[in-house]
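Bug #77: duplicate submission created two jobs. Keeping one. Sequence:
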Amino acid sequence: MTCATGRSGASAPFASRARFALLALVGLLLAASGVWAEEEFLPVEQAFPVAGRADGPNVVRVRWDVASGYYLYRDKLRFASQTPGIVAGKAELPNAETKRDAFFGEVPIYHGSLEVELPIERPAGSGDSLDLEVGFQGCADAGFCYPPHRRTLKVALPHLAAAAPMPADPAPT
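Kept job's structure:
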């Protein structure tokens, strides 16, 4: 396939992102034009409330309580530490439902409560607080999709004790 620029083949991730962006733009334009005036959609903070808490010194749990009539896209969840010295690991995501989307085909989504376990790596002395940037995107079942959203959660972490020094080998006698 050749596009207008003469380059062959658009990459699949770019095409997917472009479709998401187009869908979000169309949704925003329709909402702004009043097409969905009879439908009241919640602000993103009410549709997808999210919170984080420590679950031990090296694990954070992130929880969404998705409002009834709304859902989150699994493949749009992102997690990044904004705290120097603390690294977010790979999130452990629960099984998702499959939704048939007119634009994207079959996509994994979450309705209701979603809890994600996120391992973190942090050295002793890295502090007892994590600024965790969480990225997500969701839609209303009625057809309105929100643009991708980011939120920074401040998570209190339990104190991480410094590693005890290894005892020196006793001198041979």
